[in-house]
Amino acid sequence: MSSTTEILEQDGVSLKARLAKATAVQKKRALLLTMPLVIFLIVSFVMPIGQMLWRSVNNPTVSNVVPNFAIAIQQWDGKDLPPESVFKIFVEDLVIAKKNREIGKTVGNLATRINYDIPGSRSLFTSTARKAKKLKAPFKKSLIKVNKKWKNPALWLSLKRNAKDITPAFYLAAMDLKYNEKGDIVKADKLYQIYLSNFIKTINLSAIITAICIVLAYPVAYVLSILPLRQSNLLMIFVLLPFWTSLLVRTTAWIAILQTEGVINDILVFLGFLSDDGRVQMIYNQTGTIVAMVHILLPFMVLPLYSVMKTISPTYMKAALSMGAKKSYALRKVYLPLTLPGLGAGTLLVFILAIGYYITPALVGGEDGLLISNLIAYHIQKSLNWSLGAALGTILLVTVLILYWLYNKIIGIDNLKFG
Q1: Do residues 69 and 162 touch, judged by C-beta distance below 8 A?
Q2: Same domain, 218 and 284
Q3: Distant-in-sequence, close-in-space partners of 352: CB < 8 Å, separation ≥ 6
Q4: Which residues, other chains included, contact 45 with Cβ-Cβ below 8 Å and sequence gap of 6+?
């Protein structure tokens, strides 16, 4: 029989075709089994991130409220004031917008958006909208008569920029930049330069928290790995105990412990290390943020380290010692390199969790201990500047991805072990 002759079964179907069919059925079953997870990831992860990326550059407020004006203002060269025809269209759109009660398309939304660029201009739009129906031609003179601020070219330049649905303005604000009266990109006023410094502070605090977790977790994980199973399991319960307690309860407990009238200060005063008037402020600052977050994130460093250390054979250290190496040298040259996969996994896990933490800094950080996540929450929940919040969130996401890429280049993601 030729080697190319196909083997046929009794029904005349080749074995190769039947095997291909069975493989295709198995692939379909596997796909169906993973489909719920894929849908969950798309709905809960991909779509929210996509929406955040879109909102960070999407700026439809002006075009929603004054659509005809948004088109007409783009024909203006940006010098002096717009022509009379643009003023006319603006007034007509204001009259229509004043009657509009649809969410997101009111004069108040327009006023709020321009107020981000030119503080104090919100009342200008709302008061003018109330009088817009009574304005007569020439509309340029009528508007200026209502309020002299309408003859400020910077106001109309802001309207022209914000009339575009796609804008980099939110990213500029997130990087402490702004447009000046001429439309050039310059540094924001010192009073509003808060975001870059907060990004740097967030990265610094996250690095400090990660370093402290490494120092505390390494000996704990080492002891757990060398103890007999019964004793190590008992100690592991204490490591996992924080997971059984509410995050809110753990955080508020630190308020009682660290405050000036708290447990630690009372003990230090009782022992004579501090006077009653010299109590240390350890809460509502960076110290409180670091202490509380180290307590919360420490198990995430212990567990990866322990999972790797448990697999390291004691014979490696014994062999190094038997060959004349000192214990400290053997630990540094033999044991430490073997634990790097767990150390890398714990470092990456703790740092990424710390850089995006929100609840703990909000409760114990005060003004000095707030992270960038708290500013993002502020814009989403209170100022309602969702686009700026989305821009800050996108920059934070990109920062994490860059750090992840650098970590991969230096250490290598393939070397990580989570257990």
Answers
A1: no
A2: yes
A3: 400, 404
A4: none
Whether residue 292 sits in one domain with residue 147: no
The domain containing residue 49 runs over which residues? 1-55
- Whether the CB-CB separation of 114 and 162 falls below 8 Å is answered with yes
Both structure tokens of 202: 């967030």
263 and 364 both lie in a single domain: yes
State the residue for tokens 């860059």.
402
CA quadruple 138, 139, 142, 147: dihedral positive or negative?
negative
Euclidean distance between CA atoms 242 and 320, whole angstroms? 37
Per DSSP bridges, beta strands 185-187 and 177-179 are antiparallel
**In the numeric block, which tokens belong to residue 19?**
């095997």
Per the omega criterion (within 30 degrees of 0), is the bond before 138 cis? Answer: yes
Do residues 84 and 206 both lie within one domain?
no
Q: Is 344 exposed, middle or buried (0-12, 13-18, 19+ CB in 10 A)?
A: buried
Mean pLDDT across the stretch 102-111? 81
Calculate the alpha carbon distances from 364 to 78, 197, 254, 354 in Å.
Answer: 48, 20, 8, 14
Amino acid at 75: Q
Co-location of 225 and 365 in the same domain: yes
Q: 206 and 124 in one domain?
A: no
Residue 21 in tokens: 């069919």
CA angle centred on 206, ends 200 and 211, rounded to 5°: 125
**Residues 296 and 368 occupy one common structural domain:** yes
Q: What is the pLDDT of residues 146-205, one digit of tens each?
A: 999 999 988 999 999 999 999 998 999 999 998 887 778 889 888 888 999 999 999 999
Q: Could you tell me if 120 and 219 lie in one domain?
A: no
Q: What are the tokens at 360?
A: 């703990």
Number of domains, the chain: 3
Q: What DSSP element (H or E) covers 178?
A: strand 177-179
Phi/psi at 366 (5° precision): 60, -160
Distance CA(395)–CA(412), nearest Å, equals 24
pLDDT band at 1 (very low <50, low <70, confident <90, very high): very low
More confident residue, 54 or 414: 54
Q: What is the pLDDT of residue 416?
A: 61
What's the CA angle centered on 378, arms 211 and 203, to 5 degrees? Answer: 20
